[in-house]
Write a structure and sequence with these properties.
By secondary structure, the protein is of the alpha/beta class. The chain has 2 domains: 194 residues, NAD(P)-binding Rossmann-like Domain (Rossmann fold), CATH 3.40.50; 121 residues, N-(1-d-carboxylethyl)-l-norvaline Dehydrogenase, domain 2 (Orthogonal Bundle). Helix content is 44%, strand content 21%. Strands 1, 2, 3, 4, 5, 6, 7, 8, 9 and 10 form a 10-stranded mixed β-sheet that branches.
Length: 336
């Protein structure tokens, strides 16, 4: 059971998207003593109902029982809903989540890229604007109001061995924060739960900056790996590709300065960090190889739209988006 901090506790937790990261989070939370439910379908649903949620961590195998269903109403109102689906699926998934959300439910978004709530109460001249790239017509925002949201940035690598079977590779960092930046009782209680569950968790006073900094590297390496099939070491070891990546990152850096999230590093600083990971296969490359839709809009289209809103020119980002879009469309993995 979760501890109560300032009158807030999280005893009922639902995982929406029990893939690599969602499954990893779910196992740790269940082992911390909270009641974990999973909204799933297909083979994953069957596996969870038969064998529970499994996590390979080093030489250990952890198995936890979960209440799994393909109907949110069967799971009921939760204290915490963890959304860890791929961005292209969110618009349809969000419409199903109403029965999970009560007046005090916290919705934790553990996803890649720019989220739909990114500019709510933040962003200087573009504060409170919606982003068509990630939430056309505002359907997600209506289904998941910003008042319920706590943002999360995940610094970990996991993969799916089989439906309901997750493998952890490295990293255990979670950064959480209110979109407003306030140290509310609920974010403090969530931080305590995540630490109890064994994560290296911290609370950010500006979660948008943490999202943007992670995106600063992901928005280039991910789509380039998807197009080329190359691991991160090969991408960064080519001087021409590395130069192109640096140019895209400088465009994103200029956008960040306009909306209040400056980055005090240069692209080469980030390249050095990424290069230390070695021959790493990005999540987008894994999606292409698995025939799954790619997260281009959350990672690249949203940056282009933010450039338009802030009047920052993004010619290199435009090229990256165009090439990635044509590549993914040709495989039926984007906009199809």
């Amino acid at each position: 059971m979760s501890e109560t901090i300032n009158g807030v506790s999280f005893n009922k937790v639902a995982i929406v998207g029990a893939g690599a990261i969602g499954g990893w989070l779910g196992v740790h939370l269940a082992r911390a003593g909270v009641q974990v439910s999973v909204l799933a379908r297909g083979d994953t649903l069957g596996a969870l109902q038969q064998q529970g949620l499994q996590l390979h961590q080093g030489s250990d195998l952890h198995t936890v029982p979960v209440h799994a269903s393909n109907e949110a109403a069967a799971l009921g109102v939760q204290d915490l809903v963890v959304i860890s689906v791929k961005a292209p699926a969110l618009a349809s998934v969000a419409q199903q989540l109403g029965p999970l959300i009560g007046p005090n439910t916290v919705v934790l978004t553990a996803m890649n890229g720019v989220p739909w709530w990114f500019l709510q109460g933040f962003g200087g001249p573009v504060a409170d604007r919606s982003l068509d790239a990630v939430d056309p017509q505002g359907a997600i925002a209506r289904a998941l109001p910003a008042a319920h949201i706590i943002g999360c940035v995940v610094h970990a690598s996991c993969s799916v061995d089989a439906p309901g079977v997750i493998r952890h590779h490295f990293g255990d960092g979670l950064i959480v924060g209110e979109p407003s930046g306030q140290a509310t009782p609920r974010v403090q209680a969530l931080h305590a739960l995540l630490q109890k569950a064994g994560f290296n968790a911290s609370v950010s006073p500006q979660i948008q900056k943490d999202i943007w900094y992670k995106l600063w590297g992901n928005m280039t390496i991910n789509p380039i790996s998807a197009i080329t099939g190359a691991t991160t070491d090969r991408i960064l070891d080519d001087p021409l590709v590395r130069q192109f990546i640096s140019g895209v990152m400088l465009e994103a850096k200029a956008i960040g300065e306009q909306i209040g999230i400056p980055i005090d590093q240069q692209p080469e600083d980030r390249h050095a960090v990424t290069r230390k990971l070695g021959a790493f296969r990005t999540s987008m490359l894994q999606d292409v190889e698995a025939g799954k839709p790619v997260e281009l809009d959350a990672l690249v289209s949203a940056v282009r739209e933010l450039g338009q809103l802030t009047h920052v020119q993004t010619p290199l980002t435009d090229v990256l988006l165009g090439l990635s879009r044509v590549h993914a469309q040709g495989r039926g993995l984007y906009g199809c």
